[in-house]
Write a structure and sequence with these properties.
Oligomer: single chain
Number of helices: 9
Strand content: under 5%
Order of helices and strands: HHHHHHHHH
Radius of gyration: 18 Å
Shape: globular
Distance between the termini: 20 Å
Largest sheet: none
């Protein structure tokens, strides 16, 4: 059953990312290479790629029994990342545009459906006995590297993927405050998932 669920979720994830790339290339006003780089500059896209890759690997790993406790916390970390994507969009970005047609479908998949699917998969299959609070610091490496990347890329190109990280209009100090708030959100969600995992473990 795990394999089938992972395969379906992987297919949804790859479709959403591929369709978004197609839509961006079709509507671009810049060279394909620049459009591709910008496409890969969105935390939403990178994280959904991570989710799709995870489910793809799960599809093949699920063909054989997995040793108990193998890589505990990986699923929780990815779930935290995609949950931030979902919440960030609902709270900060949903009101800034009104997509229609295929773009609306893709938008909802990337920001609403896939985060919910990931949370459900986490509930069903994370090895909750193996996750630890000490892992939270390690989980912050990915968003930190992303922040460094978009700031350097923005400094070099003038393009910032999100308005709340636009140094050219907000200034570096304000952007760093926003980054600190997001880091806090990552930590709070990470701790929340760990606590939920511990609670579910006790129930079972």
């Amino acid at each position: 059953m795990r394999r089938k669920i992972a395969a379906v979720f992987a297919a949804i994830g790859w479709f959403a990312v591929a369709a978004q790339y197609y839509l961006m290339i079709e509507s671009r006003v810049m060279p394909v290479m620049e459009a591709t780089i910008r496409f890969l500059s969105y935390f939403t896209i990178l994280t959904n790629l991570l989710v799709a890759l995870y489910f793809t690997l799960e599809t093949f790993r699920a063909t054989t029994p997995r040793p108990p406790g193998q890589h505990p916390g990986t699923l929780t970390a990815i779930t935290v990342y995609i949950t931030v994507v979902g919440l960030g969009y609902q709270l900060l970005l949903r009101h800034v545009w009104d997509p229609t047609g295929l773009q609306l479908v893709v938008d909802e998949l990337l920001h609403s459906v896939i985060p919910l699917l990931m949370i459900a998969y986490w509930y069903l299959y994370e090895h909750k006995q193996g996750i630890r609070y000490a892992q939270v610091v390690k989980w912050l490496v990915y968003p930190l590297l992303y922040l460094v990347y978009i700031l350097l890329r923005g400094w070099a190109s003038g393009f910032y993927p999100y308005p709340f990280v636009d140094v050219s209009s907000l200034g570096l100090a304000r952007v760093l405050i926003h980054a600190a708030l997001f880091a806090l959100a990552f930590v709070v969600l990470s701790v929340g998932f760990i606590r939920l995992g511990l609670a579910f473990r006790k129930e079972r």
